[in-house]
Amino acid sequence: MAKAPPAAPADAAAEPARMRRRPKKLVVIVIALAVILLLLAAGVVGLLMLKKNNARADEHAEEHVAAPVVDLSKPPTFVPLEPFTVNLSPAEGERYLQVVLALRTADAKTGENLKGFMPSIRHEINLLLAGKLPSELSTPEDRAALADEIVERTNSMLGAPPSKSGGGNRPAGPIQAVLFDSFIIQ
């Protein structure tokens, strides 16, 4: 019987160790459940925001579809101009620019009416081109900006109000666009 009492303390020592393990497992399980709930909540919020952004994108797409870009039943008229050859601004050395361009108008009547203003239009374009540096005209984006600037200045010279830029709106004046047939910097 002497052997029996030592067995009891061993069982007693094993029992508190088991008791210590249970709360640790319980804490780990609670933390894991909390993390899973947080991830689910974040997923739901993300889906709601994505749905909201898609609704906004659909609204913007409807705005762009609502206004036709080109009316094929009324083709535009193009008014070609004589070639321009100008010395560019001398800051980067002696360079010159040769440009052949055409003005796009809404109809043939407007194109015919522009011919009476052609000396003033050519003068405005000449002044604009001569003030440019070669580095300001080197990329396609620079040339597109130049075309927009020519439209703004010539329409302004013709007395048209300035257009609302940035929205892709059609210019308010008789000249709708400038198209380059040739663009050479030497």
From TrEMBL:
Keyword Glycosyltransferase: no
Location in the cell: Cell inner membrane; Cell membrane
Transmembrane segments: 26-50
Chief place where the protein resides: membrane
Known role: Controls the rotational direction of flagella during chemotaxis.
PANTHER family in alphabetical order: FLAGELLAR PROTEIN FLIL (PTHR35091:SF2)
Full protein name: Flagellar protein FliL
